Amino acid sequence: AEEELSANLLWGMDDRGALRDWNEEYQSVHELPDKTLTDRINRAKMVFKVWQDFHEAAVNGASAIAAGHVPPINPTEATRQHVYVFNNMFFSFAVDSKDAYKVLGGDKAACKSARHDLRNVQLLDYFQLSHGVGVKAQEVPTDPAEAAAAAEAAAMGQTIASTGERLCTLATALIDLPCAGRRLVAQSIIPGILQGDQLSKLVYGAIEHGVPYKIDEDMHELLGTVASNLHM
């Protein structure tokens, strides 16, 4: 037991306390108040702190996987299709495991696609934090203080992002393993997804190629604000 605890501590995981819920922390800091400049600065600091902690834990987790310390949750499948759960993070290889990128270069295309996915997450988070892009339109504030803050932001060419309904992204990190020649994708875990929870389901788009797209009106409205502001 002591050897197992020492090994976990070596890879940044302490079994003696509750594991951090990365998804809950990541979403919570994005929903902190942002009515004033001070609020936005404090929120930015908290977002950076959580992301920095997540990135450090992701590197440690990837190192543990590369060292063979973490068993896959699907051991009967091919090695390239293995996925892992460690320290409340989901790890997968950025490889073309289902031949989705076969005509585009296979694993090399999948590896580049993972990088573009991360950039898209970063871009969406940036615009939502700074300009409110991807946040559902708010009603006109009736409180004088809120109205004044909104007017000030509008005069500066900014939109005060709502702490209400918004597009939520996953905390994501890419870790290259030079010794294995592979790239690992680390993500926070969507609540219920590993337990087959019916509350966690696809409501917009499609996961697999060739599958009909699902459309949700509320999600379509949120994505419409993103497309409009990004000139898509």
List the SSEs and their pairings.
Layout: H1 2-10, H2 22-30, H3 37-66, E1 83-86, E2 89-93, H4 107-130, H5 144-155, E3 172-177, E4 182-188, H6 217-229
Antiparallel strand pairs: 1-2, 2-4, 3-4
Helix pairs in contact: 2-3
* Helix residue percentage: 40-55%
* Helix run count: 6
Strand order of the largest sheet: 1-2-4-3
Uncertain runs: 137-141, 154-163
Rounded to the nearest angstrom, the radius of gyration is 20 Å
**Biggest sheet statistics:** 4 strands, antiparallel
**Order of secondary-structure elements:** HHHEEHHEEH
Give the overall shape, derived from the CA principal axes.
globular
Find the structural class using helix and strand composition.
alpha+beta
SS elements, strand count:
4
β-sheet strand percentage: 5-15%
Q: Span between N and C termini?
A: 55 Å
* Integer average pLDDT: 75
